[in-house]
Design brief:
367 residues, alpha+beta, eight-stranded antiparallel beta sheet, seven-stranded mixed beta sheet, 7 helices, 17 strands
Length: 367
């Protein structure tokens, strides 16, 4: 008992400084992780979560998302929703908090967070689908109305050196930046971040770009970010994702009943997953799910996309800016039992095996 108490105190002591960092967190918010992914099916209030330290299986969320403490993303965002002189961030959302009726071409949502003390290199990038969240420095407030919908949140722990590449990819999305207090002294030499923070979006080619970043863990996870501007008329699923992966993909996304599946190219098909479906033991359906993703078949790739599988997602550039597609690769799979893969350059446990079993609609040619 004595040794346990000593150990417990030791961890409290080292956590004093760690609790001030912006890194991704364990399911219960207790410790740092390299990455975390939370999927919340429609009607669920805590969702399923998987983190880098437990890549073998999805787990139930440790707490309801309306509660800040005791759950991964609530703790990671602790210094976004409250003041901390050592934590600064840039937040973007096409439905910004407390700003009704804002018009934007973007559909992107996320937060770039970093720690400012000298000789400290700690940052994270959160990408998500939740409108109006999080509100900057006004207290934690998960929008309860969003519990009825399907959402996904991804957190990547990164070094500050990766921020400029992230900004370069986001420039194509023309995101609505609603808050930024990152001092220029932290981003010296980061020309793309300066353009992002100043709203200086590119108006000339190239309209399609690819950026690669790495997470801070060892071994690092490579994350590829593909972005397409509004000016480009490329359809993101066929012209970008399938072309980059050189594999058949299964797509979960809202549809317009005009853009169909495509089986014309051998081993590079686009197959549409039928709705309703089940992810883990949580039921989901396209009417209520706001997430758009695709998995490769054979399965070692998961893609998160910020635009639906629809004709107007590439024919009407006024509506569609760019699509971000995240892919993660884990460089070493020894001693791991993957049942759900996450993304091309992160393999999430159960995802691939499970999602590849989802029924697909009868394949038809794209119109």
């Amino acid at each position: 008992m004595l040794s346990y108490v000593k150990l417990h105190i030791y961890f409290i002591l080292i956590a004093i400084s760690e609790s001030q960092n912006p890194k991704c967190r364990q399911a219960d918010g207790a410790g740092d992780v390299d990455w975390a992914i939370l999927y919340k099916a429609p009607g669920e209030n805590r969702g399923k979560i998987i983190v880098s330290t437990n890549g073998g299986a999805w787990a139930n969320g440790a707490a309801v998302l309306t509660q800040q403490g005791g759950q991964s993303f609530g703790v990671t965002l602790e210094h976004v929703v409250a003041n901390n002189d050592q934590i600064k961030f840039l937040a973007y959302n096409n439905v910004p908090p407390l700003m009704p009726n804002v018009k934007t071409k973007s559909n992107s949502k996320g937060v770039i967070i970093l720690q400012t003390p000298v000789n400290v290199d700690a940052a994270s990038w959160i990408v998500h689908t939740v409108p109006g969240f999080p509100a900057a420095k006004t207290g934690y407030s998960w929008p309860v109305a969003e519990n009825a919908k399907g959402h996904i949140l991804i957190c990547l722990t990164i070094s500050e050196s990766q921020i400029n590449a992230i900004a370069a990819s986001l420039l194509r999305a023309e995101p609505l930046v609603h808050y930024n207090d990152i001092p220029e002294t932290e981003t010296v030499g980061m020309q793309y971040f300066k353009k992002l923070s100043d709203g200086q979006f590119p108006t000339v080619p190239p309209y399609l770009s690819r950026q690669s970043i790495k997470t801070a863990g060892q071994p690092a996870v490579t994350v590829n970010v593909y972005s397409k501007s509004a000016t480009s008329r490329y359809e993101i699923y066929k012209r970008v994702i399938v072309k980059a992966l050189k594999k058949t993909i299964k797509v979960w996304s809202r549809r317009d009943n005009k853009l169909k599946g495509d089986c014309r190219v051998v081993e590079r098909n686009i197959r549409l997953i039928k709705s309703p479906a089940r992810v883990g033991n949580h039921d989901t359906n396209l009417d209520a799910d706001l997430t758009n993703w695709a998995v490769s078949d054979p399965g070692n790739v998961f893609c998160l996309i910020d635009r639906p599988y629809a004709v107007n997602a590439f024919k009407n550039f006024v509506i569609t800016e760019m699509t971000i597609y995240l892919s993660f690769r884990k460089t070493k799979l020894s001693n791991l039992r993957w049942q759900f893969v996450l993304i091309k350059q992160i393999f999430l446990p159960d995802l691939m095996t499970l999602l590849l079993k989802l029924k697909t609609a009868r394949s038809e040619s794209i119109l």
